[in-house]
């Protein structure tokens, strides 16, 4: 018997692991590409991030109206906008909007001692068109959310009221994303209530981000309630929102609820993703 085979026998026994017909002694085992434990959290985060990025890039390339878009067609068409510009793909590339360097401004004011409100006032005076269109504030809040600059995002939000800048669905989506990063579910729910009061229509990103905040805090009951609201209001249903709800049920250790959400997905004809199955399996393990 070959020395390598003897060594394998001593390590694993005669009935060692089945490595497949292509295995020969001394070769490296194949990489396991199956979803690993908790892998769906990372995958789910990437799904939501990609979705928000597509929305953000589309709206920044089209003129916004006061309620979130010049026309209903434009508000919906962002879902088909898959191509991200290099400035959004690479962190080392500055993102410049109508002459306003968003990346540079964020880096300059990320310091906790920076006078963010004064810096916003100066930028508003110098780049009035970018700010009055609503695009600059969307970009700033979204960039702050990505970098988890909670205080900076909150200051931007308050500045909009002081400057008389009207908020639309994209601003709220960006700010709800901030609350998700901050694990502040109460703030996310307050923003949803404010949208209702102002008559601002929600979309799937609104609900996906809010449900994700439930996932981060383990509030599965609230996640289910938001899913119910999304369905009642007729908002476009996305895999991401249901995945976040399944993950919230998993964190809450209620596998039966996770299975119910999964069945709802299939009932509405929504195609489950790898995240859906991975989260469901993890929920079953905990149950």
Brief sketch in words of this structure:
The protein is an all-alpha fold and 287 residues long.
Oligomer status: single chain
Q: What percentage of residues falls in helices of 4 or more residues?
A: 55-70%
Q: Can you count the helices?
A: 16
> Unreliable segments (pLDDT under 50, ≥5 consecutive)?
10-14, 59-91
Beta-strand percentage? under 5%
How far apart the termini lie comes to 47 Å
Instruction: Name the overall outline.
Output: elongated
> What is the string of helix and strand elements?
HHHHEEHHHHHHHHHHHH
Strand order of the largest sheet: 1-2
Content-based structural category:
mainly alpha
Global Rg = 23 Å
Based on DSSP secondary structure assignment, what is the total number of beta strands? 2
**Biggest sheet layout:** 2 strands, antiparallel
Organism: Entomoneis paludosa
PPR repeats: 168-202, 203-237, 238-272
Biased composition (Basic and acidic residues): 1-12
Pfam family, one: PPR_2
